[in-house]
Amino acid sequence: MKMKGNCWIALLLYCCVCNHTLFAQHSKLDLSSSLWKFKKSADGSWYTASVPGCIHTDLLNNKLIDDPFYGSNESTLQWIENENWEYSATFYADQLLLSKEHINLVFEGLDTYASVFLNGKEIGSADNMFRQWKWNVKPLLKSGENKLTVKFISAANESKRLYSLLPAKLPMDERVMTRKAAYQFGWDWAPRFVSCGIWKPVYIESWKDARLGRAALSINKLDSAKANLTAKVNFNFTDGAKDTMHAELEIINKNTSETFRFAVAAGISAQSFPIEIKQPKLWWCRPLGDPYLYTFLFRLKQNGKVVDTLSISYGIRTIELVQGKDKIGQSFYFKINGVPVFAKGANYIPQDCFPSRVDSMKYVRLISNAVKMNMNMLRVWGGGIYENDLFYDLCDRNGILVWQDFMFACSMYPGDDKFLENVKEEVTENICRLRTHACIALWCGNNESDEGWKNWGWQEQFHYSKEDSARIWTDYKKLFHELIPACLLANDSGRVYWPSSPSIGWGHKESLQQGDSHYWGVWWGMEPFENYKKKTGRFMSEYGFQSMPSFQSIEKFIPDTERYLFSPSLKVHQKHSKGFETIDEYMNRDYTASADLDRYVYLSQLLQAEGMRTAMEAHRRAKPYCMGTLYWQLNDCWPVTSWSGMDYYGSWKALNYFAGETYAPLLVSMDETRDSISVYADWDGIEKIIPVSAEIKLINFSGVVLWSKKIQKKVSSLHTEKIISFSKQVLLKNQSGKRVFLHTEIEKDTLTRSENNFYFDKPKNLELIETTVQTSFSVNPDFKSFNLQLYSDVLAKNVYLSFEKMDVEFSDNFFDLLAGEKKTVKITPKQVSGFFTNQIKITCLNCKD
Ligand code: BMA
Questions:
Q1: Which residues share a beta bridge with 250?
Q2: What is the pLDDT of residues 506-536, one digit of tens each?
Q3: Can you tell me which atom of ligand 1 is nearest the CA of 524?
Q4: With a threshold of 0.85, does the pTM exceed it?
Q5: What's the rounded Cα separation, in Å, for the pair 807 and 822?
Q6: What is the edge-to-edge ordering of all strands in the sheet holding 226-237?
Q7: How crowded is residue 725: how many other Cβ atoms within 10 Å of its Cβ?
Q8: What is the pLDDT of residues 571-598, one digit of tens each?
Q9: How does pLDDT run across 729-753, given as a tens digit for each residue?
Q10: Ligand 1 mean position, distance from CA 130 (Å)
């Protein structure tokens, strides 16, 4: 653990059309759905299992344990990790299958230490959750019934055993010894559930004479007239068939129906083929253009007959990481098809402690949320998992770039040959699986290992001798400076590799002058939110602040007797040692805190959202010095108080609404420096320059406009424009800053606009006028949603809409309702029944109880 201080249509269509970008069509016998059962190795009783799945969810489904996420159950379920578990299934093999020349048993993922038996004989063992495991089962497969058994030994115990053999302890704990998702051993937002199981699909694949292996596409030359691509394809041929067969490969461009035909050299294992595309359409990330994808169908023919096929969706684009020296340091930004991208997004962690139960709709919802929030980049963080194909397919289809970490985080790692060989296989396999995805912008070696080694005092904490330190650092270099770059060079040489995120720790001024930064002065360093404005680096890949999940979510995992502040169960669902204290300290700086849980939750979300907005706006205002902002963290893996913008159940916190506004292509923001206030416009859409009209008003809380100004301006996408500056004193004259605010609206056209409010004092010091917000509902023509009209005579600050015990989607929330304004919010209940409009609850900073 750290010691530092609207593409809905695209999404829906995608769901109907396909599940994987890349699939080969030799025969597959799916064993996931076979009847699996499980038992504790030491016991005799078998229970029904789900595959893919894991031991915790199987125990839960059989009602053998209580919900691991409920109340304080976590601690009572720790025994599970110390046991060994066994899974077994029977399946039938027919003559057709047995007649195949090659028959492999394939586990897409085994978590983690497993021995696999077929009909009583051991066929192999596994020791890496991130790898696929494949064994030839032809010699052991019987006609009729076959029995498959997988025996898992405790990953926790095995990790501890390996850890105890180390000459000097590595940072963190035993988890570093095992290639298993690190967050499952507990994190500062995750419980400890060290699970095991067949967590990905399992099947038998078979083929006769020839089949397609992996394929990779790369761009050799690209201009508006044509794209020259190379398809490098791997083949498997049966020894006997190698020389006699006449093999051909067809590559069909499904978008144009053009077919390319090639002879395949006899018995060759890999061959490259040229493909030309005339007037290529490019893949763009949001909001710079459409994420256009080509589909290529590869057909392997043997003596004129198709024997195998493979389909790849591919985006034609160039991507570069620009690191040019400048007066202050070195730039750090991506160019897509030659155009600079300002990256807006968040850090992504696995969606569940038990990733096998994250269904496809959860992925669809997650990416659609990122789209709604105007994000164009997600960072897949290194303490989790390499995500499944669907995740990257959805990012491809929705123009969301991916910063992909390899799965190493916040520690140093062993450097022995066995460990490195295992990692080499893992890294190579995942590179080859993911390299065809246009969305992947960069490969990154690890999260915070370099920073940790140099700044977190591990040397003292673990009492390293000079020799220990030298060896551990040499091992680090072997892994992140040699092995991984070599795997990339061999398999995906066109993409950038960045050894560690961040490149320099946040305590050093250089961290803001070059590379990517994780700025944790706010939160870990207890610095004020305003420091986000001063501590802006070249690419802000992490910064964040915690908040609590909504009260409706809390009701799902905290027993009703414990729904009060800092109850034992609420504390179990806060994994940062000083989490609540930190929230409290910041809350008291800005708000009048409350002992009432419901109010505290509301304030904690507002606090987080305002803090993050300060950061996101500052990062955009610093363009082009700063060219990226990814807050920590997008989502949760269980219900918890954390840095996330949406909770485990998918409910949006205030942060998500603020992020959606702040990440929109057009943003107006205001900043105060000494005595002056400036208004800025930032534009990062397709057009290089746009005209905007802006209106700035000084308004008191009763709605009286005291001053206003209209301005026309041209805004370039290359840098943020200052629209106007004025002296605070001259503007306020005799008015108290506690009773007025600045309201600014900026507009390109009626669809592209941004508005923002600037307050002259902290919320707790504002002299807001008490109000009751009036509401009226009308049903929308879709008969699925309602429009809620809101009205208040005076400013209602940070209006929060909620429904008791109801999951509801709001088109906006936590907004300021201006005096006399009629605001409409669209409300879509997630459940079909049980929704009563009169159960709406309206909270605001100055609402009457
Ligand atoms: C970041 C991450 C995580 C951690 C988070 C909050 O730096 O890389 O390790 O959970 O901070 O502390």
A1: 261, 299
A2: 989 999 999 999 999 999 999 999 999 999 9
A3: 12
A4: yes
A5: 25
A6: 210-222, 226-237, 270-278
A7: 12
A8: 999 999 999 999 999 999 999 999 999 9
A9: 999 998 999 999 999 999 999 999 9
A10: 21
Distance CA(812)–CA(774), nearest Å, equals 17
3-state per-residue secondary structure call for 585-634: HHHHHHCCCCCCHHHHHHHHHHHHHHHHHHHHHHHHHCCCCCCEEEECCC
Alpha-carbon distance 603 to 808, whole Å?
20
Contacts of 381 (CB under 8 A, 6+ apart): 347, 348, 349, 405, 409, 447, 633
CB 210 within 8 A of CB 302: yes
Query: How does the average pLDDT of the chain come out, rounded?
Result: 95
Which of these, 361, 338, 324, 231, lies nearest to 282 by C-alpha position?
338
Confidence of residue 16 (pLDDT cuts 50, 70, 90): very low
Q: How far is the CA of 2 from the centre of ligand 1 (A)?
A: 7
- State the pLDDT at residue 835: 87
- The residue contributing the CA closest to ligand 1 atom 8 is 447
Ligand 1: which residues within 6 Å by Cβ?
A: 2, 187-189, 410, 447-448, 518, 542, 632, 643
Q: What is the DSSP letter of 334?
A: E
pLDDT digits (tens, 9 = 90+) for 293-303: 999 999 999 88
Give the C-alpha separation, 726 to 508, whole Å. Answer: 34
CA of 278 to the centre of ligand 1 (A): 46
What integer pLDDT is reported at residue 496 of this predicted model? Answer: 97
What is the Å distance from ligand 1's center to 420 Cα? Answer: 25
Q: In which residue are the tokens 């002065």 written?
A: 521
- Give the tokens for residue 563: 């729904």
